Hints:
22 helices, Penicillin amidase (Acylase) alpha subunit, N-terminal domain
Amino acid sequence: MKYAKLIISFILTIGIFFVLNTKLGTIPPIGKFLNPYSGIWQNETTEATSGNAYIPGLKGKVTVHYDEQLIPHVFAQNESDLYKAQGYITAKHRLWQIEFQTFAAAGRLSEFVGEKALDYDRRERRRGMGYGADQAIAYMEKYDKETLGYIQDYADGVNAYISQLKPEDFPVEYKLLDYKPEAWTPKKTALLLMYMTKMLAGYDVDLEYTNALRLLGKDNFDLLFPDFFDVTDPIIPKETDWSFIDVPQTPLPESQAVLDTIVETIAKPNPDNGSNNWAVSGAKSVTGNPILANDPHLGLNLPSIWFVMQLSTPNHNAFGATIPGALGVISGFNQNIAWGETNATRDVIDWYKVEFNKDRTKYKYDNEWKDVSIRVEDIKIKGKENYKDTVLYTHHGPVVYDINFKSDKELAGYAMKWIGHEGGNNQKTFIELNKAKNYDEYVQALQYWNAPAQNFVFASTEGDIALWIQGKFPNKWEGQGKFLMDGSNPENDWQSYIPQQFNAHTKNPDRGFVSSANQHPVDESYPYYVFNDGYETYRNRVINDYFNSKDKFSVADFKNLHNNNYNLKAAEIVPYMIEHMDTSSLTEEEISIYNEIKAWKFNNDIDEVGPSIFRQWYGKLYKLVWDEFDVEDTALDPPFTYQTIYLLKNNGDNEFMDIVETKDKTETAKDLFLIAFKDAASQLIKIKKEKGDYKWANYKGTYVGHLLQPLPAFSRLNIPIGGDRNIVNATSENHGPSWRMIVEMSSPPTAIGIYPGGQSGNPGSKYYDNFIDDWASGKYHQLNFLQSNQATDAIISTQTLTPKN
């Protein structure tokens, strides 16, 4: 009996050991995770920011000074060492993040998440993310081995850090998901840049518009989706003279849209991915120095999308926000210039219907059959056999939709033409901007930039300000790319590209400022076709009105504008709704809510209730107006906010005001105002009972979530900050100003900045989320721009990177 007990005890011990060290479903191996010597507890240690560190391949010593914000100030003797050091330091503070983002870009999440990520991985691979990264590497191998060498230097730096790690040193997310880091490669940097290209230039509605055109007809479509809104305050001033452009727009062919029924489309990036930037000239500045500002609007995540650094060699000295995984400063300044970006949202994705032969080895083009290329995507799945997905490629691009993915068409598919697949050398733009000394060198740096299209703002110590809308843009015929096109007709191909020197731009405009907020880039006088890609119509007018409101501006004015909560969208529709709504049937509780929004001054401040009422009221109204777009098994995208409000105010009897479910009754905008208000009031009363009030801070509930969203312990919730979509302070639930920077172009420049996160990717570090409270309250931190390799009072520790032990 005693032997039986011994055997049972032994088996139970083995079982417990197995369970504690095995990943069961989504649960990490608890024993390994909680191990005091190698588990999560080891991640509470503070980052090493002093002493010596060894990086193989360095040509000389690199000094890294850290200030009290954990911002590294890197001083190297040459660019090769600089980028090795940048890779090493970024990996030290953000290793899991940089790898996770490239796994997401490559469609490799199934490798550690399991089968539930398979659909995501298939989608990203069919989008051609890996293919685009391969094209970028191939381009650099052929045309720019110097830049590719710097990218390899960066990879060597990352790998030098990885090689020093023991399992107990792995970031906590590796322990949670039970995997380990792999070697960094130049392709991973290319994948990261593809990821950014997708987030900023991967939103399109061509297929949804095709359905809308088929269902609504051309007249209704043109009414709902105009090329230009009736109010246009473009990025490039209206008075710009375009007579220097001598390459004509591609002529309109005799081509018809393909009016197929598209049931489902792939997930799109967040349409709010945008930004603000602006600069004022010295003549419009209180100090006589130009001032520049930037605040990119992206997802609010932990670890943050940005990592702030100073990168210096004897030839240049740059400071600002870097993207972990990529080289150089992305939004920042050096001793001579400052730069920043906003999303230009230009239409650089078109869709083509492709007809295949019987065995799908060829496709029809120009009355002939061309060979299909095949790319087999081998997707590894944790705990399962690999999944192989065969993606067909044509000269248009990857066939995203076919019989094997979201389509039932046996011998047809939809191919994606995307500028992101065309290679190029985006990394060089930032390498060159980091070194640029004046306007001409800024323009020279931009020529390498293909995608995503960006509005690059500029200011210099010489006194110049400028803004270029930069990207590689197809020279389209009028209307090209709005709808699905016949892929067999050569006239539907992109015939050429707009010459780079004819991209819309302005330098030192008479009005004394430049600005962009994702609005229409130009007015109708620009001689090339520009698709209305849902351009912003509110933030831009608030910004431009602000800079037209007085003669001189200061850094304090820039801060106030960054944190401006004025809701122009509400100001333009709420008074009209109040004036034209019949209130006779409102209950006592509804009248109370009505009086609250009637008294609102249209500021989305945290203690206001007006924003919460407006969000509910307009949201209900929007759905009622566009209930025609809720069609089963049909992909549709309803009209833009600005055009919706325009129709409500100017065409309130339009047939679209009718509610589909009430076929025997005809509604007008006035009727919809009341119906929507009552629905909104009912919801607000419920919220008040559950939460005590519906003040904007509580109602909106802004949070900065960990990249693995189901980890609230690693996130910051219920952050008290105002703003919203369509507001200069564009902070919504988990999206908004991901980096605020203001630079005054003194000699040397002085700058302040803040972002909603912290320099460390380690949830156990005090530097993980320490910027968030200041960011939410509108505060900034001084950016300590060191002019030499000498530590100042701002420096709290120094680390030396050496080529040998």
